[in-house]
Amino acid sequence: MNFYSILYGICLLLTGLSAGLFYSYQCSVTGGLGALPTREYLMAFQGINKAILNPVFFTSFIGSLLVLSLAVLLAWYNGINDLLPYLVAALIIYALGVFAVTASGNVPLNEALVRLDIAHANGAELGQFRRQFETRWNKLNLVRTLAAILAFGALIIPCIKKLAATT
C-alpha cells in the first residue's frame, strides 16, 4: 500500500464519517428535537450545538475538506487521472454543499441561538425565534446531508469499479 492509497482511504473515512453524522442527525435528532416544546427544543439545541464543537467533530468536518484538497492536488500533480474526476467531484460537492452551507447557513443560525436568552424570553419571543430558526436550519441540514452523501458516494465509485474489474 502506497501513500496515495492511504490518503484516499483517509478521504473515504473522513467523508464517510461526516456523511454518517449528518445522515443520523437528519434521521433522528431533528425529529426528536422537533417533538419537544419550544423552550426545551431551544435549550436542547443549544446544548447539542455546544457539545458538537469538539476535536472529534472538527477532525472529520474540516479534515474531509483538507484531505480531499490535498488528494486532488497530488492526483493532479502525479497524473493519477483515473481518480482525479471523482476526487474533484467529491471536493466540490463537499466544499460547497457541506462546508459552505454550514459556514454560511447553519453556523449563523447557531450563533443567533447562542445569543438567545432563553431564561428571560417570553413564550411568544421563543416561539417566533423557533419558527425562524427551525425550518431554515432543518432545510440547510438536509442540503448538507445530501451533499455529504454524494461526496462520499463519489469516492466510493472508483472502489466499486475496481472490485467489479477483479471479479
Counting DSSP H or I runs of 4 or more residues, the number of helices is 5
Count the beta strands.
0
Structural class: mainly alpha
Q: In one word, what is the shape?
A: elongated
The biggest sheet amounts to: none
End-to-end separation in angstroms reads 20 Å
**Residue-averaged pLDDT:** 96
- Strand content is under 5%
Low-confidence stretches: none
Please tell me the total number of domains. Answer: 1
Gyration radius, in Å? 19 Å
Please describe what this structure looks like:
With 167 residues, the protein is mainly alpha-helical. It has one domain. The chain is built from 5 helices and no strands. Helix 3 packs antiparallel against helix 4. It is elongated, with a radius of gyration of 19 Å. The mean pLDDT is 96.
Summarize the structure.
87% of the residues lie in helices and 0% in strands.
Features:
167 residues, 5 helices, 87% helix
Please give the structural blueprint.
Blueprint: H1 3-34, H2 38-52, H3 55-77, H4 84-115, H5 123-166
Helix pairs in contact: 1-3, 1-5, 2-5, 3-4, 4-5
